Amino acid sequence: MIVETTKEFLDKLEQLRRRRRAVILAHNYIIPEIQDIADFVGDSLELAIKAAEAEADVIVLVGVNFMAEVAKLLNPDRIVLHPEPQAGCPLASFVTPRMLRSAKQEYRAPVLLYVNSYAATKAEADYVVTSASALQAAKKLSREYDRIIFSPDRNLADWIQEQVPHLEVVPIPRHGHCPVHEFLVSKYYVMRAREEHPNAKVLVHPEAPRDARRIADYVGSTSQMVRYIGKTDPRGEYVLGTEEGLAYRAKKLYPEAKVYPVTPRAVCINMKKLTLDKLVWSLETLKPQVRIPSEIAKKAREAVERGLELVGKKPK
Ligand code: 13P
Ligand code: SF4
Description:
Order of helices and strands: HEHEHEHEHEHEHEHEHHEHEHEHEHH
CATH superfamily of the largest domain: NadA-like
Number of strands: 12
Radius of gyration: 19 Å
Oligomer: single chain
Number of domains: 3
Strand content: 15-25%
Distance between the termini: 52 Å
CATH topology of the largest domain: Rossmann fold
CATH architecture of the largest domain: 3-Layer(aba) Sandwich
Bound molecules: 1,3-dihydroxyacetonephosphate, iron/sulfur cluster
Largest sheet: 4 strands, parallel
Structural class: alpha/beta
């Protein structure tokens, strides 16, 4: 039996990356082994911007499938690989194009759609936003509108409603949520983490429920939380109220900080489906490629670009 060593395996990955002229973009929740070899690690907004600016022939998006779709929307003529198409996002499945069409008719308001949604749904949106841009986008729209529709995360909708009280935020559907944040970044786990680490600042993602957010020191996207550490005290102590993978990213950037996940149970099983083995296989075979029907892709891309433009992030 010929046994390949892990070093040989990683060397093969390097050769493939160079031969394919590929760029590897990974989300902050991805396993450490991939974070360590990725060209870029970031939140959904940063991944979209990096994908738009990529100069490679091949983009490998190591995240859940809506993130790979966004990379393809912004790079229609390039090969975009998503090494594990089964890695979906249950939050994205809470909204359909039909639900948005009927909400628009009923409420006569612009739709701010969270990027955690599928391309066919994005095609029905006015603006696509991420956790890092949603609040700024809603504040801008509130200068022109009294009401917006926000979909599909009800907690993010509620957070915007709290921050921009003069704007009516209609959540579509009423119950859309991320199971990881809804059930494991709950008030109980946040309280418990505070008791275990009384000197730590507690940072929470806006997908967490209101009672958990209200006892946090800061609310922001995954990369905004990491930047908060850098700005506040890179040697301080922090509890991260989000998926546990972010703690690795934060510790890598700030090795002198003490960083704890709110609970080690806060695992997004879909993010963990992306493995090094699948990444190598994908670069070897150039499969699976992300494909989006052109009529959907055009409208969805425009909604993503309008969302980026609204917050001054549209790539040149
Ligand atoms: P970020 O854009 O903050 O990284 O969030 C993505 C996500 O899926 C949160 O669960
Ligand atoms: Fe989706 Fe939640 Fe996983 Fe983020 S953590 S990708 S919102 S299921």
